[in-house]
Design a protein that fits this description.
It is a single chain. It contains 7 helices and no strands. It is mainly α. α1 packs across α2, α2 runs antiparallel to α5 (about 105-115) and α4 (about 85-100) crosses α7 (about 135-145). The longest helix has 23 residues, at about 30-50.
Length: about 150
């Protein structure tokens, strides 16, 4: 049976969605989350992604908040906001695209994209940047701001 995504790609998608979920349920920016978990913690997230995705994401959030000492804060969600899986998919596709273009591992592309100031544009849901095609997002990422049409 041929699957749409490899196991590594599924793990990447899950971790991107988890980072989005942590961001929405804490006072941490995505860059702060990446820095808090450090390489060792992030690699462990990737390693355990296939296990974590079977768990309730709330439970995973609680476990991680205890381990990494961050506070869970329930923020008000607008009905028009994309789901954390929707945003996870945008980051997943951008990371995959960057990895291919730069001949980089998913992990290295993951870290550089999440540490980039460009994420503030992607995370502005009112701007609808997440709806743009991936090559446009990639070249905007390289430019550190959205490209002009």
């Amino acid at each position: 049976m041929k699957y749409r995504y490899t196991q590594k790609e599924n793990d990447l998608f899950y971790v991107c969605s988890l980072i989005e979920y942590i961001n929405r349920n804490s006072n941490l920016s995505k860059k702060e989350i990446i820095e808090l978990f450090k390489d060792k913690g992030l690699k462990k997230l990737f390693y355990l992604a296939d296990v974590y995705h079977c768990e309730n994401i709330e439970k995973v959030l609680e476990e991680l908040s205890l381990k990494y000492h961050f506070e869970i804060v329930k923020k008000e969600k607008k009905e028009s906001d994309p789901t954390f899986y929707d945003m996870g998919k945008v980051y997943f596709k951008l990371i995959k695209y960057k990895s291919k273009k730069h001949h980089q591992s998913y992990f290295d592309s993951f870290k550089t994209i999440y540490k980039s100031p460009f994420t503030r544009y992607l995370d502005n849901y009112n701007a609808n940047m997440m709806l743009s095609n991936i090559p446009y997002l990639y070249y905007s990422y390289l430019n550190k701001k959205p490209l002009e049409y």
